[in-house]
User: Which sequence fits this backbone?
């Protein structure tokens, strides 16, 4: 275990920046914290959960794939290759760190997504142990240890110090390069913080929340439950839940015509809440709000576990915080659990 | 509030029992102490689940569109500020007045749990309101805070405790947060900026947007049956764009579209997951409408046509917008 004074954080960031592009959780003018490329003067914020999840680092909301232009009979094409530079993602909480493992199952299985893969492989993840879980948190439901993210290097902020422990080979190599800035430390303070955090976790309203096995046991029974009609009635069909979710991963591919007649083909996050989601030549397979709402939760609670052996949720609590109609995965799972038709 | 909650449950039961009203729109408890959710109640038995307290900020008026279209007579509990939205929906022919039974519901300001969290109480195990105090329980213990410091921004500009549409009042009106400031102070501060400063300000604000469309979907003035931004055939279809300036235009276009119809309910800013100062654009339009056409409040009734769709001889000429607008522009 190593440590350095928090006051030296800008110095540490400057050193890391020499190794790779550095992404840090930073406060914007409105007081919201989101990941941002580090530059001198960026206000790093380590004691809050980011407003958006960390998935942007590997799966940005928008990215161009191709440009093309036709002039007369000529068509010119420009392929936009996946980025190949190294990045460091700093300050990742345990929930978001687990989400990468789930996204890997989607993007790194055949056919492998070369854009995701390039970003993922070039990235070193520095985790940050949770010290202040919120009432909306339920990562323990998915066996996640909030105090110990699954990362290349783990860090903890205790008082005025940043504790640092390399985990993977990649993490050890970076730590070696930065070693001059650290001093050796024992793990007493980190252990104490871990105990305190676990104590808070045990007091949270969702501390004992479990997803009932029966929900995924009989797919068609769950699918046909009357619960979906009641739950979806007040859904506004906005895309908030899907966009802030660290595990939602659907995307669309679209064309955008620029002023000089060039077309940019880009992909962007999509949402099963959107009325044109998966619209095909024959129309939309899910015409009603009920069907679209159901799709999201069936995916998270039934289809994803069926295909990948895990729920597509990490308990980060963002949907609980941000849904304008206060709908969320916990409410859905609880309603399905008590429903007599599931 | 407990008393009003009981009256609300009884009223909902009574209305459903009469038979004409098939659905009641109210609030239902969530997972915590502050996340009461909009909910529809269709049976008398379910009315015992209705909750009403200082954590019911949601304006339920937009849900009337679907029930009105389906021909389901619906009773809705409306706080004073919510009534403006219902009038606007009726004026825009999206809601049939005959399909609505409006129950005026007293409110003395809604408490914003996000503000409590932002003040450093990150883990809210319990939040209770007691008169003008809020008692917050966190793992570190209990603290007592002043309610007035933790009201939703929209409540800080409360328009008063009168109902703009009301078939029946649920209980005696409550005193609302007193607002004596200038509603347009923030707009004026932006008007005073240079063009470059304005551009930088809005770029910072709007670049936070994730195009979730929550602002649009909650807005009583955004009541098109299909939004052009949802039309994949339209060149402006609403998913994120490769060009961020194009993407940011969404908010400006939306503000134009609801100008003269935006009732200033503040729901857009409340639901924004990214904390974009959305109401500000609308406030600019309101301020300009007031200065060009005389004081106008959308949703104050369901009949008066907005100034932009009413021709009067004394209306200002188009160049007034340049001359009489912002001299710093």
Assistant:
């Amino acid at each position: 275990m190593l440590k350095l004074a928090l006051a030296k954080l800008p110095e540490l960031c400057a050193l890391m920046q020499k190794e790779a592009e550095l992404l840090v959780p930073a406060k914007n003018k409105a007081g919201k914290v989101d990941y941002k490329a580090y530059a001198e003067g960026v206000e790093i914020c380590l004691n809050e959960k980011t407003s958006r999840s960390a998935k942007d680092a590997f799966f940005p909301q928008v990215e161009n794939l191709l440009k093309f232009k036709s002039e007369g009979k000529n068509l010119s094409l420009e392929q936009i290759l996946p980025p190949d530079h190294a990045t460091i993602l700093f300050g990742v909480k345990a929930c978001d760190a687990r989400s990468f493992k789930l996204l890997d199952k989607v993007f790194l299985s055949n056919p492998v997504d070369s854009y995701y893969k390039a970003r993922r492989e070039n990235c070193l993840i520095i985790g940050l142990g949770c010290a202040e879980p919120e009432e909306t948190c339920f990562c323990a439901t998915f066996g996640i240890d909030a105090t110990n993210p699954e990362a290349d290097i783990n860090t903890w902020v205790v008082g005025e110090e940043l504790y640092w422990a390399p985990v993977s080979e990649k993490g050890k190599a970076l730590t070696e390069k930065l070693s001059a800035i650290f001093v050796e430390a024992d793990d007493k303070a980190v252990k104490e913080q871990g105990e305190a955090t676990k104590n808070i976790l045990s007091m949270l309203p969702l501390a004992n929340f479990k997803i009932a096995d029966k929900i995924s046991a009989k797919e068609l029974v769950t699918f046909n439950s009357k619960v979906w009609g009641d739950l979806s009635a007040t859904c506004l069909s906005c895309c908030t839940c899907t966009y802030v979710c660290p595990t939602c991963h659907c995307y669309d591919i679209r064309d955008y015509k620029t002023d000089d007649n060039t077309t940019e083909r880009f992909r962007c996050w999509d949402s099963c809440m959107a009325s044109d989601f998966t619209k095909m030549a024959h129309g939309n397979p899910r015409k009603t709000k009920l069907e679209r709402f159901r799709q999201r939760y069936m995916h998270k609670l039934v289809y994803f576990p069926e295909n990948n052996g895990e729920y597509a949720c990490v308990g980060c609590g963002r949907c609980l915080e941000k849904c304008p109609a206060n709908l969320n995965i916990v409410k859905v799972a609880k309603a399905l659990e008590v429903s007599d038709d599931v | 509030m407990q008393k009003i909650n009981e009256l609300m449950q009884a009223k909902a039961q009574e209305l459903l029992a009469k038979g004409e009203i098939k659905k009641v729109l109210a609030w239902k408890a969530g997972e915590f102490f502050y996340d009461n959710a909009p909910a529809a109640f269709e049976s008398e038995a379910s009315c015992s689940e209705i909750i009403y307290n200082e954590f019911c900020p949601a304006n339920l008026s937009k849900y009337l569109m679907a029930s009105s279209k389906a021909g389901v007579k619906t009773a809705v509990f409306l706080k004073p500020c919510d009534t403006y939205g219902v009038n606007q929906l009726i004026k825009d022919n999206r809601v049939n007045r005959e399909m609505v039974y409006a129950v005026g519901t007293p409110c003395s300001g809604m408490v914003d749990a996000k503000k409590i969290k932002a003040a450093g109480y990150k883990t809210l195990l319990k939040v209770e309101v007691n008169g003008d105090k809020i008692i917050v329980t966190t793992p570190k213990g209990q603290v007592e805070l002043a309610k007035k410091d933790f009201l939703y921004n929209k409540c800080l500009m409360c328009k008063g405790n009168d109902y703009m549409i009301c078939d029946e009042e649920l209980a005696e009106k409550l005193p609302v947060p007193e607002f004596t400031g200038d509603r347009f102070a923030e707009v004026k501060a932006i008007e005073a900026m240079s063009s470059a400063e304005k551009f930088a300000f809005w770029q910072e604000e709007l670049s936070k947007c994730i195009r979730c469309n929550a602002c649009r979907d909650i807005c009583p003035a955004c009541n098109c049956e299909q939004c052009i931004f949802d039309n994949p055939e339209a060149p402006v279809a609403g998913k994120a764009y490769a060009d961020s300036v194009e993407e940011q235009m969404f908010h400006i276009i939306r503000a134009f579209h609801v100008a003269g119809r935006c009732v200033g309910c503040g729901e857009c800013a409340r639901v924004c997951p990214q904390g974009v100062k959305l109401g500000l654009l609308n406030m600019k339009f309101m301020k300009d409408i007031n200065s060009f056409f005389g004081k106008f409040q959308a949703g104050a009734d369901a009949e008066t046509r907005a100034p932009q769709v009413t021709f009067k001889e004394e209306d200002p000429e188009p160049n007034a917008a340049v001359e009489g607008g912002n001299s710093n522009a």
